[in-house]
Amino acid sequence: MRFKIILEYDGRPFRGWQKQENRIASVQQTVEEAITAFCGEQLTLVAAGRTDAGVHALGQVCHVDFSKPTTAYTVRRALNYHLRDKAVKVLVAEEVSEDFNARFSAITRTYQYRVLNRIAPPVIDVGRVWHVHYNLNLDAMREAAKYLLGYHDFTTFRDSECQAKHALRTLDVLDVTTEGNYVLFDVAAKSFLHHQVRNMVGTLVLVGRGKWTPQRVKDALEAKDRRAGGTRAPAEGLYFTSVLYEKYPKNFQA
Amino acid sequence: MRFKIILEYDGRPFRGWQKQENRIASVQQTVEEAITAFCGEQLTLVAAGRTDAGVHALGQVCHVDFSKPTTAYTVRRALNYHLRDKAVKVLVAEEVSEDFNARFSAITRTYQYRVLNRIAPPVIDVGRVWHVHYNLNLDAMREAAKYLLGYHDFTTFRDSECQAKHALRTLDVLDVTTEGNYVLFDVAAKSFLHHQVRNMVGTLVLVGRGKWTPQRVKDALEAKDRRAGGTRAPAEGLYFTSVLYEKYPKNFQA
């Protein structure tokens, strides 16, 4: 029985999504241990996206196959019981057909990057925003963002250790909005390269500060060279917000 | 030289605003120690409102009198330096005239109470929302809220240890709105009784759950008896958001 599981987690106590040797405090390991405590078996969680250390999720989607019959209600309740002291919880559990794959069936992944743009350091949101105390020019950031939309070779904005076969991606959304003292970057694409969102946001903030012109972002993209890109925004401001599956539109919002 | 100081703090590590014997981890004590570290003197901070243990502030307003000349820029910078490891920061410092009193000049105080209304426990917002997993009837809560608006004797919603001389208050705003899975209660009044906001919200949630009718809130208010009131909402969902001063409208928003 395959279950789709939507998770919320705070990135701070974890070393990222992926289970690794000598790195027991990953989100994957933590939830897989809760699964073992629930059903007695060692099962593998497959996630829509592998978030880095410190990155948060409001709607990470995974799937897991249980060998014994159970219900969505039981899965959610039991896992949240075993996760009661952890910074990760199951928002939704749902039985799905075997052809659903959290990673490969995804057609859109969305992230939000949150900047706290004020002089005083964060208090309520410490560890969960990037604090930028410089004035940011929104219009300039929006102009630069337009150059990144669409189908491009994003080599300039991928991590030098990114393992994807190529850097061709289609960026569907890159909205820059404000909410009080927050500047929010909403992005959506079928898939992203390693560190792509943080590298794009870090570069846009350089534009917002007036260090870069919008045109320089266009030139950097066209250079297809990581050394032409701007700085990387820190992990703490990034939220993996949702995953869209063509056959499961009702689960777009976690 | 009198300075107005606007503070943001996370209520979790503090035992409330007010300095008390044997209770050093109050917000007041923490900020007064930063002031002493800055100017060498022991000065008293006067606040617009004394928040309870666990209650957060996005815009608590205080005043303090420095005996030596300084500037708003220096006050903010120096205090935030000395508060760098604390869950309280200075958002704004501003020199004001001697007739400004953070407590007595206030004409409106606003609070927001945040309920996370979903089945899964909070993760990102742990300690900063009240988690209510029951379905809440918004229309019923709004109908009940109308009975509380205006000039009333709020004895039913004051703490039994409230030290105010009488319970007559005018409630100007009590809005119930939603934002995703959050139910937000925005309240405004010239002043509040001890635990008034939390007692009102706790009672409205009983209405939302269907345990109380809206009419029962009206009857409880008219009973002028704490024992007729509903349960108290926990501190962790409450935010002291802003203070309005007639002569200082530009500082309404922190």
Description of the structure:
Two copies of one chain form a homodimer. With 254 residues, chain A is α+β, with helices and mostly antiparallel strands. The first copy, chain A, folds into two domains: 103 residues, Alpha-Beta Plaits, CATH 3.30.70; 136 residues, Pseudouridine synthase I, catalytic domain, C-terminal subdomain (Alpha-Beta Plaits, 2-Layer Sandwich), CATH 3.30.70. Chain A is built from five helices and ten strands. In chain A, strands 1, 2, 3, 4, 5, 6, 7, 8, 9 and 10 form a ten-stranded mixed β-sheet that branches. In chain A, a hairpin with an 8-residue loop joins strand 2 and strand 3. In chain A, helix 1 crosses helix 2. The longest helix of chain A has 13 residues. The mean pLDDT of chain A is 94. Chains A and B meet through strand 4 of A and strand 4 of B.
Summarize the SSE layout with pairings.
2 copies of one chain form a homodimer.
Chain A: E1 2-9, H1 27-39, E2 46-47, E3 56-65, H2 72-82, E4 88-96, E5 106-116, E6 130-131, H3 138-148, E7 150-153, E8 168-179, E9 182-189, H4 196-208, H5 214-223, E10 238-245
Parallel strand pairs in A: 3-10, 5-6
Antiparallel strand pairs in A: 1-3, 1-4, 2-3, 5-9, 5-10, 7-8, 8-9
Helix pairs in contact in A: 1-2, 3-4, 3-5
